[in-house]
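== Protein entry: sequence and backbone fold ==
=== Local backbone shapes as whole numbers ===
==== Amino acids and backbone structure tokens ====
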Amino acid sequence: MSHRIVANPALQGDLRIYVAAAEAWAAGRSPYEPGALVGPAGNRQELPFVYPPASLPLLRGLLVLDHRTTYFAYFVLKMAAVVALIALWRRRLFPDDLAGACLYLLCALGYGQTIKMDVRAGNVSVFEQLLVWTAALAFLRRRPWTYAALITAAAALKPINAVLLLLLLVDRGRRGRAAVAAGAAALALVHGLSAAVRPDLFAGFLRNAASLDDRGNSNPASLALIRDALERLAAGKGPPHLDWIVYGLVVLLVTAGLLPVARRYALTGDREGVIHAFFIAFALAAPRFKDYSYILLIPPSVTVVVRVLRGVAPRVAALVLLCTHFFAYQSWVAALVLFTVCVAHPRGPARRPPAPAEEPGPA
């Protein structure tokens, strides 16, 4: 896969969008207007730019080098980020051999080869996941302000990540609530100033974001699944906004499913278990969740397979579901199955064995 990307600069399509958007903004044009994005060969980019205006100053750094150099430098950075992310998971979350083997398997094949899809698309998802999982480690160490700062940074580029701030509320402490409020205020300030300074750009961002309707393999998310199902069942003859009504019910059901996990956390203090359940719930409830976004669910999936499921047959069945790809929304269905297991399991994930450095010494 790496050789194919290096040998074919036509890949990493999202990078072309980022560069074209930065060039349009640097030239004084709105990158949100139809036809505003032009690639390195002068070809118009068909995909719209759907990131908030606050991202444009960051993306302008892509214009420092020529396109070919930027292409390869970005690819090298992405591969370094992939290695760093997997190393973080292996060292901090899954130090034992069985969990480590499961981790490597899911990194290679899990969720329709989600890591491969991100590298091929040239999206920023791997960098986003580094922020999110570094934040998760901060949560495990009871550092709510660090968690909120890292999630806020991830949400500055992809606003949907702001929902992850709500994880801090499970502690029911003043520090957690204050960190959530500070993160939300920071995002409101950043995007509010952006809207005040360039309302035309912000309106274009909202318009492009609202017009997105990816479905199937590229966006195995709840709202896309609901729309496809309703089109087949009702042939477009249902009540207006029925898709959003059903989607709202799905969000309510997922939220209700989290409540037993939160109560279990209050009894056992299983911070790692509540992180994994919360992240799976986030993926299930998000209105848009791309194929490469499922990188988020690799560690929760390892936890469920290795530490929650018991017996060879359930584990093998879960791995088959996670590592194969037979239909468009299989990743979403796999996440739903894992979430159901998390909710139904009466005691939460089994405690992981301590790493060698954590083992107690002689009394």
Observations:
- The chain has one domain: 2-352.
- Residues 2-352 form one domain.
